[in-house]
Amino acid sequence: MNHPKRARSLLLLLAVASLSACIPWKRERSAYADLCETEHAFTVPGPNGERTINLETYLYDYDSRWSDEPFQQVLHVQYPGEEYPRPEFYVQLVAYNEGRQRPASGSRRGEAPVPILYDSRQAYITFEDGSRLQARPELYLGGPTYDYPNFRPQFARTSPYDINSDEVHRIIPKITNNKRYGSTYVIFQTDKFDADSKWTINLGALEVEGHKVQIPPLKLCYHPVKKWIGIEPLMKP
């Protein structure tokens, strides 16, 4: 047998062995609620003409998930006198002017930063029964690894706060929804969030160079259970 035939035979043998070591495996992703819209762009007047302000809003760190892992928020707060920490609901905010300089990269290229002031004291949730819940008055920075709020006093920032500051955009997690810019978090003291939640999240407005920019109310959309057949190695780690 010449060399090309031996190589083809070896590849065929490896392919057969690989297929025989794999079996169909039932996979399932549980139902969840998510924001119906994530990306928002606003045009505001400026001294040199109109400029675009971008706002991205997320409930989960999507890049940290595998295909069948549940969509879950990860913030849990320990209350005095209670045995277990409680989950709290949060919205991630990524705000920047179009083409903004990227302080995390060390480059001076790009547009100069435009202050984008945000006050979380104006934010509230409207629940299904019409009742309201105000957000925590502080905004929180994220951590260095995941897109989750870092719920510690040294990472809390008093409202109103510039959510387009270099302080925010220098902290870009390794596993993140936006690899160019950092984020802040608005937190609500409720553990009621689940797949069937039909809330409206009212964030209020941004202030950009003296102009108020209203953020449209954020609605939740229901995502049903997803089932499929995946191929799993017979020997799982």
Question: Could you please describe the fold and organization of this structure?
Answer:
This protein is mainly beta. The chain has one domain (3-233). The chain has helices at residues 3-20, 166-169, and strands at 22-29, 32-35, 39-44, 51-58, 76-77, 86-87, 89-97, 116-118, 124-126, 132-134, 138-141, 156-158, 161-162, 184-188, 200-202, 205-208, 211-214, 218-223, 226-233. It is globular. The relative contact order is 0.24.
What is the percent of helical residues? under 10%
Radius of gyration, in Å, reads 23 Å
Count of all domains? 1
Query: Helical region count?
Result: 2
Intertermini distance: 38 Å
Structure keywords:
five-stranded antiparallel beta sheet; 37% strand; 237 residues; mainly beta
Offer a concise description of the structure.
With 237 residues, this protein is mainly β. The chain has helices at residues 3-20, 166-169, and strands spanning 22-29, 32-35, 39-44, 51-58, 76-77, 86-87, 89-97, 116-118, 124-126, 132-134, 138-141, 156-158, 161-162, 184-188, 200-202, 205-208, 211-214, 218-223, 226-233.
Q: Topology of this structure?
A:
Elements (H helix, E strand, L loop, with lengths): L2 H18 L1 E8 L2 E4 L3 E6 L6 E8 L17 E2 L8 E2 L1 E9 L18 E3 L5 E3 L5 E3 L3 E4 L14 E3 L2 E2 L3 H4 L14 E5 L11 E3 L2 E4 L2 E4 L3 E6 L2 E8 L4
